[in-house]
Amino acid sequence: MGLSIVILAAGQGTRMRSRWPKVLHRVAGRTLLEHVYQTASSLQHDSLIIIYGHGGSQVPEALAHVDAEWIEQTEQLGTGHAVAQALPRIDDNDDVLLLNGDVPLVCAGTLERLTAAARDSGFALLTAILDDPGGYGRIVRDGSGKVVRIVEEKDASMDERAIREINTGMMVVRGALLKRWIEALDKGNRQGEYYLTDIVAMAVREHVNIECIQPHSLNEIMGINDRVQLARVENTYRQMQAEQLMQDGVTLVDPARFDLRGTLKAGMDTVIDVNVIIEGEVSLGDDVRIGANCVLRDVAVGDNAEIQPNCVIEHATIGRQCRIGPFARIRPDTVLADGVHIGNFVEVKKSEIGPGSKVNHLSYIGDTEIGRGVNVGAGTITCNYDGASKHKTIIEDDVFIGSDTQLVAPVRVAAGATIGAGTTVTRDVEAGTLAIGRAEQRTVKGWKRPKKGG
Ligand code: UD1
Ligand code: CA
Q1: How far apart are CA 235 and CA 243, in angstroms?
Q2: Which ligand is nearest to the CA of 127?
Q3: Residue 153 near residue 137 (C-beta atoms within 8 A)
Q4: CA distance between the termini of the chain
Q5: Would you place residue 1 in the very low, low, confident or very high pLDDT band (cuts 50, 70, 90)?
Q6: Judging by DSSP bridges, how do beta strands 346-349 and 393-395 pair with one another?
Q7: Is 361 a catalytic residue?
Q8: For 185-199, how does the pLDDT look when each residue is reduced to its tens digit (9 = 90+)?
Q9: Alpha-carbon distance 350 to 368, whole Å?
Q10: Res 454: pLDDT
Q11: Of 193, 226, 437, 453, whose CB is crowded by the most CB atoms within 10 A?
């Protein structure tokens, strides 16, 4: 007896008022469907089927990397009709876990309990009790407390609408039962759809016992039907991630103003100030400080490094004890060794900078290799682009570059050389020499400055 998982993701999501299929909207940078898929695929299973439909191939294309069987529901005739598309692939003896692609925060542990609950009778339902059950299907029970059926809100009477126990949409049903019931569904309801939820009444008629279990947290069952709910889930998820990070030893100055859109590994006593956005895969060492308003995407930062406010760092490696910013931009394929200082209004692209070297003010360093102990003066520009191709600049150890220097690549400045301020370096500079290329200063004595108004 195996487990088949079916994720329903074919609906349009009319209430989103979007050109995109609903399941491609994102929470914490990942599509709703990806959240559900990742949780589902972490369970022991034999097959995982995703039902797609609205938006055509957009959905499978957006999730091309996942290991799932895609089945198209060409017309969206309801959740029961969506499940019907998967039936030919389902073994009678398998248990089938049904999930909605628009309920992203469910936990693997809850789904494991749900699967276990279905083992004997072949039917388990995940329900929840909400203060505000609006929008969900309601669980109707009889006088003795036994489940009788599920009624959709649109079909519910006033009394039924007052029921606070709701259908989360998640259930486990034995293959043979599911096939029999799905084939017997009809569209006799307000929305003219095949409702998956109607199988509950069928199970009751056949005296199949329905096990109901509840999730540990109500966050797990939050469904997304419109953009208000999308923002609510984003908020909840942000809080969940922030709490986990704080439990793991990271200080978040304000967890409500911290966004993680990807994965973050952080050492101990790292402090993250407000309005920081972390995207992709980021790792921070011990005692790292990230200032306010920084964006870090796919970055590794070493121990004791300090990123001051308003920096944007992308696809880069930052060594230990580095000091970056404020207002620095580090672009892809940059590697900063330990103890590098990058100051305000400095842009570094595709460059390696050696230990202890400093680029402190107003510079552009691109396609460059800088050795150790180098000082790059304010306003230095590597002229790496000739209008057709990019060229490399190499600056060896212990070089001193005066302010307002242009280095016209390809060019090499050998170890220990000095470049005078204001020089345009067009030829290689030998080790230990001074290169200076500025027009000589003239003095005009008794110079009268022009005066306004004559
Ligand atoms: C559904 C349940 C409701 C439950 C709620 C929980 C039904 C009839 N109702 O309502 O009891 O409280 O979920 O969140 O099942 N889908 C398809 N094909 C279709 C229609 C829908 O794949 O033809 C997919 C949607 O993409 C979505 C999921 O099924 O991922 C649920 O559909 P949705 O229309 O959002 O149902 P709800 O009205 O939320
Ligand atoms: Ca829904």
Answers
A1: 12
A2: 1
A3: yes
A4: 100
A5: confident
A6: unpaired
A7: yes
A8: 999 999 999 999 999
A9: 7
A10: 66
A11: 193
